[in-house]
Amino acid sequence: MVPEDPNFGILFKSVPKELEAPIETNIQGSVPKWLTGSLLRNGPGKFEVGEEKYKHWFDGLALMHKFSFREGKVFYQNRFLRSDAYKKACKYNKIILSEFGTLGVPDPCRTIFERFVTRFIPLNITDNNLINFFRVGDDVYTSTETFNPRKINVEDLSSDPKKMNLLYTLGLATASAHAQKDRDGITYNIGTTYIGGSSYNIIKFTPGKTDDPSKSAETLCSIPARSLTRPSYYHSFGMTDNYFVFLEQTLYCNVSKLAMSAILKIPVCHCLEYEPEDESFFHVIEKKTGKITTVKYRTVALFGMHVVNSYEEDGHIVFDLCCYDDDSILNKFYLEYLRNGDKTGSRSFPRPELRRFVLPLNVNENTTKGVNIVTLPDTQATAMIRDDGTVFLNYEVVSEIGIDMPRINYNGFAGRKYKYAFGCANQAAGEFMNTLVKVDLPTKKCKTWYEKFCYPSEPNFIERPNSTEEDDGIIMSTVINTAKQNSFLLILDAKSFEEIGRAEIPEDVHYPMTFHGEYIG
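Predicted structure:
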């Protein structure tokens, strides 16, 4: 795509300063009076430290955003997360902690021995939690894909000086950025340990046990990686009423290369290796017992970051995932490419697919081989037992428009059969995501919102009080208009997908692209 947008690069421009106090936005249209909580958004806000520059979109220092609602008015504020990565960068005016695509320099405060050890053990792993938020009880934590979630104060976006340390308490070197809160108040996540060979561990946070949930967290299950030295990369996982579903996809992290990254002078992203000839593995785990089911599910090579939802139906698990054919999109997110394109000045981004996989649960030695064993009437997804006893899954594409950054009516339908998914899409092939989409999954039909030169964030769904229908509520998405060089919070009616109103941030306040968010009611 040859970009028509001359101001595209402002999506990835640093925020010069924080807002010390909330500011009122300018309302166009209306804001529902029943909105009384806060919408939190998370993403990178600072891409330079002194003379040094972060190289990848996933690297910038975390900037938290808050939209609060009172009597039809909307107020906006922001604040940088006071992570160790942020504080050290400010102190030394250098990038100290390594990020996904940027290698940090040795911490000047470390001893000679510590600096030597860091060359072989990656002790300078970042706590720059720029991806998401999750809750343990009433407490809100920031997250990325490392082991140091940090609690924040929702009122003023201040950061707790203490942070979880899942490496010390549970041996986890990484953790998913998308923890999930169950209906009983328990929060679950999945993380990888490299100790004694790589494995994926499902962990359980029970609120109220200790001030630091990582100290009372439990490991429910440990899933051995297919390769002990190359565990799979993942960003999220599935959870139904009775099961966890983990997809071990074909993008791997080379642990040996990661351990030597400081000596090799390479960032984490250079330790990822995609294998298009491999198969992806599904693991199904009983939630109550932590037992891994014995059925071996396989599918094609793929790359996906975001599980939309998963649920049980008539002896099957339905698992919906935003997928790509490979991991090339990660290379498209280098800041040089995002801001300037390739040598010709053009940019092109792959389109995702919303794929549905159906996993039959009741499989045994008597199940017929070589035929489709999915018996659900409303899906074209299939499963077939091969001669080696594995169950191969063929997916169904369940949306006429491919989406990513998906959201659903989480409070009512997470882990349950659902009808609607919301997400972001490319308006035309090759474009950066610039369209909001509502997918009617049974029909695959879509409703969209689009304005030229406008780039929306992940759509957050908020249900209307006392709602009885799945899509009875609103969609909120932060939108950047590069032509006008301003930003606004867009509010859509979730049923019709028509605009209700927008809250415009003052033009002298820069708002960059964000990743994920959470509505705190």
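Summary: The longest helix spans residues 84-92.
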